[in-house]
Amino acid sequence: MSDGGGRVVSLAARARRAVGEVILVGAGPGDPELITVKGARALARAEAVVYDSLVDPALLELAPPQAARFFVGKRKGRHAASQEAIGRLLVRLARQGLTVVRLKGGDPLVFGRGGEELDCLVAAGIPWQVVPGVTAATACAAAAGIPLTHRDWAAGVTFLTAHRREGALALPWELACHPEQTVAFYMGLSVAAELARALMARGRRPETPVAVIARASRPEERILIATLGTLEEELARARLESPALILVGEVVRARSARAFALTTEAAAAPAPPPRRGGRRSGCPAAG
Length: 287
What we know:
Blueprint: H1 11-16, E1 21-26, H2 37-44, E2 48-51, H3 57-60, E3 68-71, E4 74-75, E5 78-79, H4 83-95, E6 99-104, H5 114-124, E7 128-131, H6 136-144, E8 156-161, E9 164-165, E10 168-169, H7 173-176, E11 181-186, H8 192-201, E12 209-214, E13 222-227, H9 231-238, E14 244-248
Parallel strand pairs: 1-6, 1-7, 2-3, 2-6, 8-11
Antiparallel strand pairs: 4-5, 9-10, 11-14, 12-13, 12-14
Helix pairs in contact: 4-5
């Protein structure tokens, strides 16, 4: 058989290679062209591919035709395999001497449970490596023309997951409510209205701008612009579908309208003054 690089791998050679390796590869946010060159090269030499539901099928075509393919996708309420079963599968395949690509949406180590899979591989003595991918926050910001940081409005950015824990939103609220940073909420579409109410109850202004970017980088991408105070109503009208990311912060005001596939404008609120003194940007004034 071929190893995907034009070299023939005999069954005897594989037998001498007692243990293979597992490569965690970030598939990016959806557009197959956003995978890294190194990630594509890993797929080209894969002998087995273990992939998630958010992976574009076109990426599977980068693997050799004879490579085994295992779907282990998880969507809300529907899991093809438990996390423990995925770990066992990776170990089993590697112990067969295979080069295994674990293909995960976005970046493997950003809310992708890649850390748990690495722990499993280390415990089993399996060689591993990680190829980073474009995570949803940067992809969604690029799609909407929104800078995650801005020298006047956001000195930093925080990534949070909006999943519930024991029935309630379990978040580090001191980070989520910081007024001088951008907050990116992953996996929060189903609780977006509750999230907005919780942020306002903890001091965030109702006019704080919010962007919800659904299915970023895909042909069906949609972008909703609102405020914390109008988000619930706007979402009810828009009926966005997951996966979606929520950006909260003043940087949403700095967006480029030309980047929008779909924009629902909330009532315009005056822009806040710059955080620091001086002109809001380094660009010369018109006229």
